[in-house]
Amino acid sequence: MLNPATVVGQGTDGIFSAAGPGGTAALNGSLSLHEEIGRLVSARVLLLSETPEAAHTLAAHLDSARTSRTAAYLCCLLSSCDLVNQALDTIAQARVLIVGCGGIGATAAVALGGVGVRSLHLCDPDLVEISNLNRQLFWRRADEGRLKVEVLGEVIADRFPDVKIDTCRERLDTIAQLGELIAGKDAMLFTADEPLGIDKVLRDRAGRSSAFMVFAGYTLRGEGVLRWGRQADVYTARTEGPTHWTKAPNGIAPSYGPLNLELAGQATALLVNGLIGDLAEPGWHKQVFDSDAFPRRVWGTHVDEHPIVS
Asked: What is the per-residue pLDDT across 146-155, written as a single tens digit (0 to 9) for each?
């Protein structure tokens, strides 16, 4: 099957070339048909298929307004029709918990619905405020005072009526175990920032789940931070006690719209790649970048223990 991302061209020497996600193959007619096909497969201009049915199924996905762009993207990552179909099925069947539906979480939720996730559980106790409008894209002035999870659910349902949406309006510090929310989920995106340090506490509880997890946010130094992993059986608590932080009187936590969008995009892509098993290394990882540095200076770590605070 021809990869939908393929482009073709003709050089000044008259030789035709086809370029795919894996490289470029010149079609000069000097090779055997078997060799030519091998070069096209190597360049991923052609996608292999174990059965005709797999090719027909992928063709239907590529012809669907709902799945065509996601399918075409996965064709750039994966080498066969069967793998692309399997990834699309995994995404569609995934049950994803999103904790925190503000600047990062709300954007990621809509993006996940667009990618093809059909089950989203939205968790956030906050109401829409006018001060949210400068950095959170899906609220209107008329939504002031409404629950964010309700408005966000309506936005997703309007765009993607095939997505099942559940909501949680409780504050996580009042839930005895995060396990009650994450039970049966395949992945979790955590972006909540209150109470301060709650993500570190909840990583302890969530660490016993087999779900793939992404934690996204940024520091007071203007650094974007992503943590992700799945190794539920690896658990290490720090020996020192935690520091209990609170906001200063009349404090305003910084939240910058462009950076929220950037983190939401990275977190969503990470979560989807984690679901379909396209991340190279297991374990827990951390990525940090300076938000004021262009091009981005990114650095990361791979830790064997679950990064939590006891």
From this structure: 999 999 999 9
